[in-house]
Amino acid sequence: MPKLANTPTLNNYSKLPISSYRDYLKQHGLVKTVTISYNYLGNDHSITINISNTPCTYGGHRHWWHCPKCGRRVAVLYFNQSYQCRHCIGLNYQSQLQQPVDKLLKRVAVIRERLGWPQGIVNGHGGKPRGMWQKTYNRLVNEHDEIAQQIIERLI
Ligand SMILES: [Zn+2]
Fold first, then answer.
1. Which residues surround ligand 1, an ion (CB under 5 A)?
2. What digits encode the pLDDT tens for the residues 28-45?
3. What is the 3-state secondary structure (H, E, C) of the chain?
């Protein structure tokens, strides 16, 4: 393997968080798949990705991608010639997220507090707090989902 000047991180790949499809999924009910169109090297492609839904304690559902390559249930897919999970890309989370579980739990608690969501990742998503910018909300939810996923993977 060639030696790289910089160790690649997941930041090198464009992200496809399930949370960016929240509104779509809300409108379309409990769909089992989402078809995504994209352009790669000048060619149009489309891929149908399986989705699963797990109910939240406070109503609503939490949605997950199933990695098109390995079938793992994940919150975020990455683009590397095609869509796949971080396990298939073979990279770990960015260093910011490579932290002990207790630190991850603390960060998640801070995010949930800011969002006004009940504590505990098992409670899934709440709504957007009044007065919060959509952009801020999306950023927090994406961070929440990535950390929550890592916590779940470590605890299982
Ligand atoms: Zn995978």
1. 67, 69-70, 72, 84-85, 87-88
2. 877 899 999 888 888 899
3. CCCCCCCCCHHHCCEEEHHHHHHHHHHHCCCCEEEEEEEECCEEEEEEEEEEEEECCCCCEEEEEECCCCCCEECEEEEECEEECHHHHCCCCCHHHCCCHHHHHHHHHHHHHHHCCCCCHHHCCCCCCCCCCHHHHHHHHHHHHHHHHHHHHHHC
